[in-house]
Design brief:
Elements lengths: L10 H19 L4 H8 L3 H14 L17 H13 L14 H12 L5 H10 L16 H16 L19
């Protein structure tokens, strides 16, 4: 996938997008159609039309990046410290009840470490922008007894489930059965 989704652009991605727009400006100067530019740069023709409109109004400079939409509150050094803390795990930082990082816990950790406030969604965007993704752990209890589970499935569950009535056809319909 070419573009970030909901996480904002990293500086490298912003630069790459700006290069696409500047390449589009060169193609506009040659008189290429919106469809041809879109096909060559692998973007939508609607995007090309927006770029062309901005190019007509302000030239190539109008297509240059204006910087990030929002300034990231954590500096590069702070991000490295946060990343190290996340790799250490929740237990090291006082979250003893379970060994998973949640967005709420990361929000609290950022507040404790740097005295910077983030929303839960802001934390999600921050993590995504830096290449982290949400993970769903496989939950298996340490005390899990596979043999006992198999016995329960084979002996207990069939008794609880009961036998299905097969002597007459049934219908899940709530309407009256037709007479015929």
């Amino acid at each position: 996938m070419r573009y970030a989704q909901r996480g904002g652009y990293t500086p490298a991605e912003q630069g790459r997008r700006e290069q696409l727009r500047l390449e589009a400006a060169r193609l506009f100067e040659r008189g290429e159609s919106a469809g041809a530019v879109a096909a060559e740069l692998r973007v939508t023709s609607g995007t090309v039309r927006q770029w062309r409109r901005r190019w007509r109004e302000g030239g190539t400079e109008a297509l240059r990046s204006k910087g990030p939409v929002s300034v990231e509150r954590l500096s590069g050094e702070q991000w490295k410290r946060l990343e190290t803390a996340l790799r250490q795990g929740p237990l090291v930082h006082g979250f003893a009840d379970d060994q998973r990082w949640t967005l709420k816990r990361i929000k609290l950790l950022i507040g404790r470490m740097f005295h910077i406030g983030y929303t839960v969604q802001g934390v999600r965007k921050l993590l995504k922008r830096h290449g982290w993704s949400c993970q769903v752990p496989v939950r298996r209890a340490i005390e899990r007894d596979e043999e006992a589970i198999e016995v329960w499935k084979e002996e207990v569950w069939p008794q609880l489930k009961g036998s299905q009535r097969t002597w007459a056809p049934t219908s899940a319909s709530r309407t009256r059965q037709g007479r015929g």
